[in-house]
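User: Could you check the structure of this?
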Amino acid sequence: MIVWGCCTGLAESSIIPPMKYQEIIADKLSAAGWSWGYCSAVTRDGWRWIVDANRGDGRRYIIHSDELLSASLELEGMLL
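Assistant: Sure, the predicted structure tokens are below.
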């Protein structure tokens, strides 16, 4: 499932491409001082997404999910 959302009215006019919701969440995490990243892995049950966020103060959060958007939304709910 790919979900698209616009961050500004300019995206609707094709001046800039629309951003995915997980990109908006990633920008929010960065602005709040979090380092973040994600990767995908194959398990015996199928693809899994792993989203990681950490700060220099030792706080770290790792989320596993079947979808990147779900993992990003869960991380946003925990941290922002």
